[in-house]
């Protein structure tokens, strides 16, 4: 992995002007791809909703739609 790799986070709040549902004004937050970024929650600056990354979506799809991802699970899975 390159040291300059980033991970993008998106807002999924339908009511937010910066969410993915507003393609004209979608707000994409790029953060460095590292354990600190993956272990912390990130929030939309416009609506304060929790941001979601594609990695979060892939994990949820892998575990199943009804799976609950705890912070501890994410912390240990990315650091091991």
In short:
With 80 residues, the protein is an alpha+beta fold.
Morphology call: globular
Strand order of the largest sheet: 2-1-3
Approximately how much helix is present in the residues?
25-40%
- Compressed to H and E, one letter per element, the order equals EEHEHH
Major sheet summary line: 3 strands, antiparallel
How many strand elements? 3
Through-space gap between termini = 15 Å
Q: What is the quaternary state of this protein?
A: single chain
Q: Which regions contain 5 or more consecutive residues with pLDDT less than 50?
A: 75-80
Mean pLDDT: 81
Q: Kindly provide the radius of gyration, computed on alpha-carbon positions and rounded to a whole number of angstroms.
A: 13 Å
Structural class: alpha+beta
Portion of residues in beta strands equals 15-25%
Number of helices: 3
Tell me what you see in this structure.
This protein is α+β, with helices and mostly antiparallel strands and about 80 residues long. The protein has helices spanning about 35-40, 55-65, 70-80; strands at about 5-10, 30, 50-55. The two termini are about 15 Å apart.
